[in-house]
UniProtKB/TrEMBL annotation:
Transmembrane stretches, start-end: 41-61, 73-95, 121-154
Name assigned to this protein: Isoprenylcysteine carboxyl methyltransferase
GO cellular component: membrane
Locations listed in the record: Membrane
InterPro entries linked: ICMT_MeTrfase, Metal_cation-efflux_comp
The keyword Cytoplasm is annotated on this UniProt entry: no
Keywords in alphabetical order: Membrane, Methyltransferase, Transferase, Transmembrane, Transmembrane helix
Organism: Ureibacillus sinduriensis BLB-1 = JCM 15800
Gene Ontology terms describing biological process: methylation
Membrane topology: Multi-pass membrane protein
């Protein structure tokens, strides 16, 4: 019963995020934005739906129980959720589940995006591994971690290419890279 409640809350969170993404998409498109990488988006949706179907099926059919490490995994899960909210809040109207590009826009370089390029993808990677481990669904953890890495191998280059072509992405990240001085050149 706890598992069903827990997973239902996570699924509800994802559905709310889809609503937010749709709202942001409409605003961005009205402002002149366009979608990049539309061809892989249905596969990404299928991956995420398949993840929850696999997780629920594995836990219920195999009667998996809560991990002996659940308390620690749950604390990590909460920390990851804080990072998730920080990502969404930092991107504001630019956050989306699709790759929506507004030509001429300045890339967001605040919050976790000031620290590294794709913190939201890190959140998803951790969750796809963490949620199954919390309930000893090892097949789902391994299988969907691999599938997610394959998806991100397509998605991240597509997103970066679109951002480089239409925004100040290259300039901003080149500037950050140029500010890094190798250890052997530091005074």
């Amino acid at each position: 019963m706890f598992f069903i409640l827990f997973v239902s809350i996570v699924i509800l969170q994802r559905l709310i995020e889809v609503i937010i993404a749709k709202r942001n998409e409409k605003r961005m498109l009205a402002a002149g934005a366009y979608e990049a990488g539309a061809s892989h988006y249905p596969y990404m949706i299928a991956l995420h739906i398949g993840f929850f179907v696999s997780l629920i099926t594995e836990v219920l059919l195999l009667r998996q129980s809560i991990s002996p490490w659940f308390e620690w995994l749950f604390i990590l899960f909460i920390l990851v959720q804080v990072l998730r909210v920080w990502c969404l809040a930092s991107l504001g109207p630019f956050w989306n589940t699709k790759i929506i590009i507004l030509p001429g826009a300045n890339v967001v370089k605040k919050g976790p995006y000031h620290l590294f390029r794709h913190p939201n993808y890190l959140v998803v990677c951790i969750e796809i591994l963490l949620l199954p481990l919390m309930f000893q669904a090892y097949f789902t953890a391994i299988c969907f971690t691999i599938l997610n890495f394959a998806m991100l191998a397509i998605r991240i280059p597509t997103e970066e290419k679109a951002l480089m072509e239409a925004t100040n992405y290259s300039k901003e990240f080149k500037k950050k890279e140029n500010n890094v001085v190798p250890n052997d050149q530091q005074q």
